[in-house]
Amino acid sequence: MTFKFKHTLAVILAVVTVACSVVGTLAVSAAETDSQPATEATVASDVTDTSVEPTQAIEPSQPVTEPPVTPTVSPTQPVKPNVGAIKNLKRTQYTTNSLSFKWDKVSGATGYVIYYRNNDAHKNFSRFTYVKSNACTLKKIRTATWYDVKVAAYVEHDGVKYEGKSQTYRTATLPNAVSVSLKESGAAITLSWSKNSQATGYKIYRMSGDTKGRYVLYKTITSNSTTSFRDKGVKNGRAYYYQIRAYRAIKKNTYYSSPSTIRCVAGLNAVNFKTDTRLSRVNLTWSKAMTTPTAYEIFYSTSKNGKYTKLGETKNTFYNTKKLTVGKTYYFRIRAYKYSGPSSNPKKYKCLGTFQTKSVKISKNAYGVSVGNTYVEISIDQQHMWYYKNGKLVVETDVVTGNYGTNDTPKGAYSIIYKASPATLMENSHVTFWLPFTSDGCGIHDASWRSSWEYGGTRYKGHGSHGCVNTPYNAAKKIYNNISSGTRVVVY
């Protein structure tokens, strides 16, 4: 009997020992579960008590003198650190695709977490980044877009980031600047610009002599699809300066693009020009602009909408190109410009006019005649003459041709018949250099009776010659000394 009791008691004690081991294991597992990082790293949350009740001991089949004692284990509770709140969040800079902020440092913070929300497209915040300093720049974000930016300090403890109270700043990125161009600069000035789909509208500022050198708001356009403005309130010859800004209105705030500036002079409208081609070149002739410009710029291209190259500029109302590729089509533009700076610096502002585009196919011959590289070229419309020898320009000069409408110099391709110095012409005029090119007595000669101011321009209309080409003395002398009989003369 004694042996049997001792054997039973041993079994009971063994069962109690196993039960205690199970309870201890479960308690330790619960403590380890509480110490794991939270699955949501953005917002700290309170930790729930996850302790497990000890398992009940197994009743022995026989009573024992000392009932088993079940030990209890308290799980370890994580301690949530104290994290300070963000104060004085300020925007320090804003551009078309970035926002910069700073705020007061938070004592004891490991770093800061930045959230943002595109209010034009989303309802929820997204985490942008973590930073260590109390400043941050959000880069490569959308232009002209409404944003909320939220900043919170955090303390990292046992792999968990605990956040403090955040602060939010509402702002927007700036609209992109528009690209502005001049469409009309005559009796009115018309501007056009590129559409900004993110903008609410556009504001137009104007500066002139009436505003004493200050830009003032001139027109507000409340639709972003309206991309032109015609200003009728201008005076011919006066300079006007415009700035156009796209703007985005959000709640009570307005965000502006950087200004796009254009300078204009009323009356610098596109000149109407004519094109002629001969001798592998193009001759351009036009009427004066409404406002007397500083000069005209000449551009050309090999395609209508291609890149245009500046050939040169002139104060005259004509221009002749260099030799171009025969049989090829070229496109030309002529644009007047005028300096409109103050008297102390007149070239400070260059105001451009508008232009037309015309094309011409290059021709080598003139009036069906092969000319070669040595020839005299006379333009009646331009009242100008050139002498080329072996392809090189020897003389270029203004002239006076035959009286317009009564004694016009005949157009066509001719040749120098002979040379004479001195000579007496049919009208009993004595000249030093005489180079006839038609059988009825039209030729090139000096004209001592003319003043220097008479050459060029429109003097030939009403005060022209009897058909000859009157030439300044020095130019006539240089041509005479470098030309031979038989040299081609082309008049057009």
> What does the radius of gyration come to?
46 Å
Helix content: under 10%
Class inferred from helices and paired strands = mainly beta
Gap from first CA to last CA: 149 Å
SS element count, helices:
3
Shape: elongated
Count the strands?
34
- Could you tell me the strand content as a percent range? 35-45%
What do these coordinates show?
This protein is mainly beta and 492 residues long. Helices cover 10% and strands 38% of the residues. The protein has three helices and 34 strands. The strands form nine sheets. Strands 3, 4, 6, 7 and 8 form a five-stranded antiparallel sheet that branches. Strands 11, 12, 14, 15 and 16 form a five-stranded antiparallel sheet that branches. A hairpin with a 4-residue loop joins strand 25 (375-379) and strand 26. The longest helix is centred in the N-terminal third of the chain and has 33 residues, at 2-34. The chain is elongated. It starts with a helix and ends with a strand. The model is unreliable at 1-66 (pLDDT under 50).
